[in-house]
Amino acid sequence: MDLFLPLLLAFAVAMLFMSFRNQKKRTQAMNDIKAQAVPGARIQLSSGLFGTVHSDDGGENIEVEIAPGVITTWNRLAIREVVTDHTDTEAPDWAADAGADEIGLDEQITEIPSDDAPEASNDPDTKDK
């Protein structure tokens, strides 16, 4: 029982040290992202939206162009990552594993549904008529 209190204190100090260390790493990562998010850089926001940094006044907000001519203002903390050129154009890993012929992507649609087709009705009274 005499050893319990010192071990508990040592454990608490170790957890506190690790917490501070992780916070420092997160702060450094955010500073790196902030330094890389210059006008013209492609970024991904925390909402999953991709865009290009249009302007940066150095403050809390940045302007992001999400489509040609569409500029939105975002809080700098919403930047998830700065995207390199190859990241958003690579095919996902599952696409390489399952060839196009395996998932049916090599077939073309040749038949276009016409407007003359009868509409399906969900009314049970007219189902069999």
From TrEMBL:
Which residues fall in a compositionally biased region of kind Acidic residues?
104-118
Any single GO CC term annotated in Swiss-Prot or TrEMBL for this entry: plasma membrane
The entry's keywords: Cell membrane, Membrane, Protein transport, Translocation, Transmembrane, Transmembrane helix, Transport
Bilayer topology reads:
Single-pass membrane protein
Instruction: Report the locations given in the UniProt record.
Output: Cell membrane
Where is the region Disordered? 104-129
BP-aspect Gene Ontology terms: protein transport
Family label: Belongs to the YajC family.
- Name it: Putative preprotein translocase subunit YajC
Say which species the protein is native to.
Gordonia hirsuta DSM 44140 = NBRC 16056
